[in-house]
Design goal:
Chain B: This is ApaG domain-containing protein. The complex is a heterodimer. Chain A is mainly alpha-helical. In chain A, about 60% of the residues lie in helices and about 10% in strands. The longest helix of chain B is centred in the middle third of the chain and has 27 residues. The chains are: A mainly alpha, B alpha+beta.
């Protein structure tokens, strides 16, 4: 049961985790189904800093949801998640990319929800500033859009 | 938001379109709409996110298809959603989802149970038309009421069309006469064509010849009231939802009728004594009536100011629910000397959405089987029309009580009749009793001979007992497999809460050919309570 697996980030950091923990990643799960003997998984799209956070998340959720003395209440998990999200925006975005790449569905939901909260109640320009985005819509595009979403100004 | 500390200008990783889509899937419609304007990629992802708009359409309006505000199917959920937003302004939005859901429930029930009523629903009223009617009325209608008409502008019913035509013709005639009659034949021709005659016009139907087909259609439509009805002796009502413009016409008819009535009474009062004394007596009489109404738990009003009919029986004056544009409530309006008495029909005064809550409750009752299709009254045989109505006698327990004695099943249900002109301060409860003989009954046939009723007050004390032969003059014979025998009767009560129970005496076989002795069949207790929602 306690088989271990080593995850390697794209900058060479290694993380040894229980297999069960790593299986929260649908990507790793699929990979292990194909190569059953694998003991090491190289993750080309995730850096060490981000992978450390992902592993932290998966470890906690594995322990918190499995039956036994480490099991936590829903409220306790929620509280932990909230503290977990207390990171800089760039880290949050890295987590989103990693969760999406690794297919950790609950982490993807959690981080995307947090990112959506950043956008919430912001003006279009505020969002552009926040995400460092150039407006490439033409005046024509904008006029067309406004006719469809006049109600958003209410 | 506070969870994520922000550092503007820090190098942000580029989120892939897939990741952005995941983020956008959590946005509210307003945030998503703002997001559209950020850049082309965001616009394309958000506008193209069918799941997002499908979810918002379902969550906000309960719509699971790409149905647009005009009832037509649209290309995408985005088009459907923005279409609804464009068609219904902000003031409607808090009520729109509730109204759409209630209409959907009602239409689903009608399609399965009474398609002939479904066919009478008119398309939604346009915002421009609604505004025009409001300005003719001289007051604005609450959005929680208007939204119902915006989705379906009431019912189109041949009987009501004819009534409206005759009213407009009469008014036109009066207007022509008042105008000096100079245009003689010209106005006659306009009237015969049902042409526009003034303020409220626009509609409709030229005056038909009234042939047998038209007559059948008119009679049939009497029963096609969306809000159901009942028959208690000679009191027959079938309530419908008039289109808003017609509701405004009904209102002016009621106002005119009231003014005419008051004028006549004042005239009579003025025949003895002077003008001043007559005015004084009129005021005293009005005050006395108002006081009487207040004691009966009614709300007296001197006029129909800010009130508009929402549900009316086919025989207009018999039963009218009016929506209050100021309070947002819904009440039954009863005319009396010098004004109107209102009986609130929706619990929880003070909320601005009385008609909508009433409408939603009605939808729930149809959906749950509380109300079902029932028979109205017997018509002359030559009329080949469907005669069935939505019966307002409840059909599910506990509102319908049931007991079986020796195979005789008795089911009893009550409806509070708010419009009844009951003896002073009394409440009329109509009840329907249904008899049938079960398949496994020990008897093959039996006949009702006597009834026995006990009426109790809230504390269980006996208020009244009734012993009598038959029921409403009939002695029904029951046989297994035969349709239920149903009869309706009523009782007047002083209190708003009480109960009634009883026994029916049956004889085995028939009265003429008895087989075995007589036996008592229990009628279970049923409540005589004024309900919180009145229909």
């Amino acid at each position: 049961m306690n088989a271990k697996l080593t995850l390697t980030s794209n900058d060479g950091q290694k993380f040894e985790v229980e297999k069960e923990v790593a299986l929260q990643s649908q990507m790793i799960k699929g990979m292990l189904e194909d190569i059953q003997s694998a003991a090491s998984v190289p993750l080309a799209n995730v850096n060490g800093q981000t992978l450390a956070k992902v592993v932290e998340y998966c470890k906690f959720h594995y322990e918190a949801t499995k039956k036994g003395d480490t099991q936590k209440t829903k409220a306790a998990i929620k509280k932990w998640d909230k503290a977990f999200l207390n990171v800089e925006q760039s880290v949050l975005f890295d987590l989103i990319l990693a969760a999406n790449y690794l297919h950790v569905e609950s982490l993807l939901q959690l981080t995307c929800q947090a990112a959506a909260k950043l956008i919430c109640n912001k003006t279009t320009q505020e969002i552009r500033d926040m995400f460092n985005i150039e407006n490439d819509l033409t005046a024509e595009d904008e006029a067309q859009l406004l006719s469809e979403i006049e109600w958003k100004f209410e | 938001m506070s969870e994520c500390r922000m550092e503007l200008g820090a190098a942000l990783p580029d989120l892939t379109p897939q990741c952005l889509s995941h983020i956008f899937s959590h946005l509210s419609p307003h945030d998503a709409a703002r997001g559209c304007c950020v850049q082309k990629l965001w616009r394309d992802l958000i506008v193209g996110d069918e799941h997002l708009w499908q979810r918002h359409l379902a969550e906000e309006l309960g719509i699971s298809s790409k149905q647009g505000a005009d009832g037509q199917s649209t290309q995408t959920y985005w088009v459907a959603y923005t279409g609804w937003r464009k068609a219904f302004g902000r003031e409607y939005w808090p009520y729109l989802g509730r109204a759409v859901r209630a209409w959907t429930t009602i239409k689903g029930w009608l399609a399965a149970n009474m398609p002939e009523i479904l066919a009478t629903l008119r398309p939604g009223l346009s915002e421009a038309e609604a505004c025009a009617i409001e300005s003719e009325l001289g007051f604005a209608l609450p959005p929680a009421l208007k939204v119902l008409y915006r989705l379906h502008d009431g019912q189109s019913l041949a009987h009501d069309d004819a009534l409206e035509r005759s009213i407009r013709l009469r008014r036109h005639g009066a207007a022509a006469a008042a105008g000096g009659g100079g245009s003689g034949s010209g106005s006659g021709a306009a009237a015969a064509a049902g042409g526009p005659t003034g303020g409220l016009e626009e509609e409709h139907v030229p005056l038909g010849g009234g042939g047998p087909v038209e007559q059948d259609a008119q009679v049939a439509s009497i029963f096609q009231g969306l809000f159901g009805g009942y028959v208690v002796y000679d009191h027959q009502v079938v309530s419908r939802m008039p289109p808003l413009r017609r509701a405004a016409l009904w209102r002016s008819e009621l106002v005119g009728g009231m003014a005419e009535n008051s004028r006549r009474i004042q005239e009579r009062l003025g025949q003895t004594g002077g003008r001043e004394a007559a005015d004084q007596r009129w005021r005293v009489e009005c005050e006395r009536r108002e006081e009487e109404a207040r004691r009966a738990g009614l709300e007296p009003r001197a006029s129909l100011d800010h009130l508009i009919p929402f549900s009316c029986s086919y025989n207009l004056e018999e039963k009218i629910f009016v929506a209050d544009a100021v309070s947002g409530g819904l009440a039954l309006a009863k005319p009396r000397v010098g004004g109107w008495d209102l009986r609130q029909a929706v619990p929880g005064a003070g909320s601005r959405d009385g008609p909508l809550r009433w409408f939603e409750e009605y939808a729930r009752r149809l959906e749950s089987g509380y109300y079902q299709v029932g028979k109205p009254w017997v018509l002359p045989e030559q009329l080949s029309v469907i005669t069935r109505i939505i019966s307002l006698f409840p059909r599910t327990p506990p509102a319908m009580a049931e007991a079986v004695t020796r195979g005789v099943r008795v089911r009893a249900s009550v409806v509070y009749v708010p419009e009844a002109v009951a003896p002073r301060g009394r409440h009329l409860f109509a009840y329907a009793i249904r008899f049938s003989l079960t398949e496994d009954a020990p008897l093959k046939r039996c006949q009702l001979t006597h009834r026995h009723w006990v009426i109790r007050d809230e504390q269980g004390r006996v208020l009244d007992t009734v012993h009598g032969e038959g029921v409403i003059g009939m002695y029904p014979i029951l046989e297994p497999g035969q349709p239920e025998f149903v009869y309706c009767s009523c009782t007047h009560q002083v209190a708003t809460r009480g109960s009634m129970e009883g026994e029916f005496e049956f004889v085995g076989g028939t009265i003429e050919r008895p087989e075995g002795g007589s036996f008592a069949v229990a009628c279970p207790t049923f409540r005589l309570d004024m309900p919180d929602y009145i229909f």
